[in-house]
Amino acid sequence: MAIESLQALMDAARERDLVEVIISDDCVERGASREDSLARMRALYAAIRRSSAGYDPSLRSQSGMVGGDGAKMRAYVARGRTICGDYAGQVIAQALEMGESNACMKCIVAAPTAGSCGVLPAVLLPYQRREGLDDETMVRAMYVAGAVGQVIAEKASIAGAAGGCQAEIGTASAMGAAALCYLAGGDAQAVCHAAAMALKSLMGLVCDPIAGLVEVPCVKRNAAGAMIAMTSADMAMAGIRSAVPPDEVILAMREVGDKMDESLRETGLGGVAGTPFGQKVSKKMLRTSEQ
Asked: How do the domains of the chain map onto residue ranges?
């Protein structure tokens, strides 16, 4: 079967294991063997782990606006006085670190985009450490995240230029919520509704990068997206469901993106990019590029 909707995924998972459904779909779509599919996903998760291990707090981005905040968050967590608690603090730190690594041109895994690369690692890596899970289990969760991202990409968009940041951070948060819900023992229905609740929570989020750089406000939004993924997964595990069917949520997100003004879709003109500070940085970067 082709995973064309979250409803199709839920229907198929009534008869077969959720992850096996997704693996089979991947094999058919790419003409790959099961072993090839697993090898590719294992390589992606290994790359996420390498990216996390390779974080360098001394690096700064092209504009100088981004870098070192992940380390600041780690130090804050270590002092034991966080508002959200130790575990949530680790999630925030992980998201910042991965977003900063992207801005500083380090190796990252686009999930689903480079600008939203911090969300999935932020929800998966701390959870793996806390629960003592092996990498194979995490790879299976990656398939769940990937299936949700694929449906959103097909039915709507994952590009900020097309649908605003709701299409990037929103999709990443939906993917993270689905993966977490799966790891916590949720069935296909819980997984898909977790994704829908995350997507609804970020609907309408504009894409307004200062100077067109994937730095501000992008990096910190990864942390917000990770936290929403966690709350959405917990709600789904509590038995809470999205009142709006998951696929209808995706279509609503597409409609919102279509109606979004061009200045709020990765053009660097509206939102925080249009503030006096944002325009000052933009002009500075333009002068630098012309020298």
From this structure: 6-290
